[in-house]
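pinging the channel bc i need a second pair of eyes. not urgent but kinda urgent?? the chain im working w is below, pasted from the shared doc
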Amino acid sequence: MTATVSIARSAPKHANVVGVPVATSGAVPRSLGLTRAALAAHGFDGKVGQTLVVPAANGATQVAVGVGAPGSLTTQALRTAAAALVRAASKHAVIATSLVDLDGVDASAAAQAVAEGALLASYRYAGIKAKPNTTSLAEFILTVGEKRAKGAAAGVERGVATAAAGALSRDLANTPPSLMNARHIAEKAVELAGAAGLTVEVFNKDQLAAMGCGGIIGVNRGSTEPPRMVRLTYTPRNPQAHVALVGKGVMFDSGGLSLKPNEGMSTMKLDMTGAASVLAAMTTLKTLKCRNKVTAYLMCTDNMPSGSAVKLGDVLTFRNGKTAEILNTDAEGRLVLADGLSLAVEDGVDAIVDIATLTGACMVALGNKVAGLFSNDQRVADTMRASSAATDEPLWQLPLEQSYRKLLDSNVADMKNVGGPYGGAITAALFLQEFVSDVPWAHLDIAGPMISDSDDGWLSRGSTGFGARLLAEFATTFTK
């Protein structure tokens, strides 16, 4: 069950819980019935995301919710505070809060952030259980004064759409791989396309082979499940620019003949998070009134070991005619992306973004909270960084160091698919750069933040759906 989000002038009587914003200094709302000294005695000082449950003798339980220092309110703080409120009141069905009715943040942006924080924190993957996982939250009510109500209503509409995209990406990635293979995600894309205002094309194995997409065909050689490429297109009236999104959809990654160890393979149903987040982002564009044309490529296949799998030393030929010597079959994401990037270039787009759970090296560099950003165009990179700040999906720009390109040199092909033991995230990005020509491009390596080991703010245990909201923001804000 997905909770509804609504606007009201005051907390309704049927609300079980009322969230009361409290800053680190200044007056404490009288409705809370506690002084600042009393709050401090309970260990509450108003830091962002801090909560204190205040049971009421009659009526709704109140929860003090920290929003930080006065005058420093941000959408990130509001998203975090809303998530903390939902977690503190996790057993209750109806929650009301005045978080949006605070000075310092535009009402629309505030309402979007609060709706996202609440809905994403309440997310539960149903699971394959006799008693599915469920959430108690049924209704989340934003109490807003008349002056901010119109803006808040617009923000709620956006926040519900972007949170739904995050949840969709999480659902797709959390699903067991036998229930979410390349054919399944293609069917899901077809199912969602109509209501989202998208055109959809699905390409099968024979079609991909005829198109010269040797990367995705090569990776698929070891699998009994056929590959799929899904092309989705959103076309508004009088589009201002044309953006391509390319998602890595390795539905399960065993490593191929370069077999992963068990502990490295156990989370590899999530190796299709890039494609999941691209699909999810595309479903928001109509609601977000995106003024750019956006074309998405979901590059979907398993990477499995078998007698027919790609061998070390084999050479694959990609859509753009370039060739690669395969020296590690576990470096497969870049091979499927190469064909998608080549097709995006042929589409004559103004910018390309690819997103992939690509390298352990990026996770070593940036940990499991931050994705790596590489780009051949600083203006595109800056737009992506601004989108990251707006959505609270963190990125760090890493250098696209051209002197490392020689590490990919091969004696038998245009390049190797790996570049040695060091700088693996950079050499992977340099490999991808071979397929974008001179089109402005950004590469997102999300190997670290694809998963959360525990509930953490608006993140829920399992797939994070990282990139769904980020890509939607970029697609709607990019200008050529």
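so The chain has two domains: 4-163, 175-477. and The chain is about 35% helix and 20% strand. — does that match what u expected or am i reading it wrong
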